[in-house]
Design goal:
- It is a single chain.
- Helix 3 links the parallel strand 2 and strand 3.
- The protein is rod-shaped, with a radius of gyration of 52 Å.
- Helix 2 crosses helix 3 and helix 7 crosses helix 11.
- Strands 1, 2, 3, 4 and 5 form a five-stranded mixed beta sheet that branches.
- It contains eleven helices and five strands, in the order αβαβαβββαααααααα.
- It is 50% helix and 8% strand.
- The chain is an alpha/beta fold and 353 residues long.
Amino acid sequence: MKGRRSSKAPRGAGLKWMLPFLLTLSACQPQPAETALVTIRFQLTQYEPLSRDRQALRNAAVAAAAEGKTYFLVSGFACDTGGFAASRSIADRRARRGAEIVLAEAQRGGVQAAIASSANGAVLIETPREPHRRIELRAYASAADLRLALQAANQAAADANRRAQTGESAGREAGPPFWIWLLVALLIAALVVLIVVWLLAGKRDAKRLRHQLSVAEAQSIAALTGGQIVPLAAAEPEAGEGARHGRLTRSEGVRGIMNQMREKEAMAAKKKKSATRAAKITPISIRGAVDKPFESMTLKQLAGSPVHALEGLTPRHARLLEEAFGIRNLEDLARLKYVEIARAICLLAQYED
């Protein structure tokens, strides 16, 4: 009828308001993860692919172009060895250099329309670390797909870098690593051992020096025995030590010297083993000092032997000494009062002005 408005909507008018909703719904759908065409692995600080790796990138680009995929995305990765900043720089350089090489190799392979982009580098902290030193190549059929993949790769790299930075700061807050504490403990233990050894050595040396003969005493023994017995000299006399180290004074008199000698002899008699005796004496030979029948005896046995055991003395001499002084053996002869006085006089004579 003329002048009557039609109530029917034009064809396709119902789809206009549904189109934005459908586009939004399709964009919200999860995109399937693209499998890398090729993965190139590197050494710790390496970012330049080897010749065989360049050939693998060329072959992958040519194969992808045959399928209509000429948009390439290169993602670079690095482990956290050496710190986050250095690792991030290495990952970025691997991605940028990988994109340059992919574009060059694709053109060498006859793919002139190839376009290559690089994603932000990602630092991975998981173990083992060796697989993280790599780049990955992916191919797409359109620029829109490449743009979406680049955004997703950059977001994944940002998340990985955030985790790496958090782990690095947590490691700094936790303090030194375990091996540093172990090294400190070993150094302390070594220091304690050195201190203990030093204390024991000092105690042993002090004991040895306390019982060692002085130079003057050693010379007196050598003089009394005619050079047959030569003790090892002790440490040199020290200032302020008085008669204990051979610096005798005339005010002490003969009686003080005799008392000191008796004390030394009593101390030596208390020693049970000859290896720990105070006065260290060199191995000696008594040949020429005693008669042959007595040469095989020990010093203790000789001390109880008759006086005529000494070379040059006869039984007649021994009998005369026994009648005059009551001497029956070498020990009595050594302890004769007159012999001690004479020995003290000879020792004092060395310090007389």
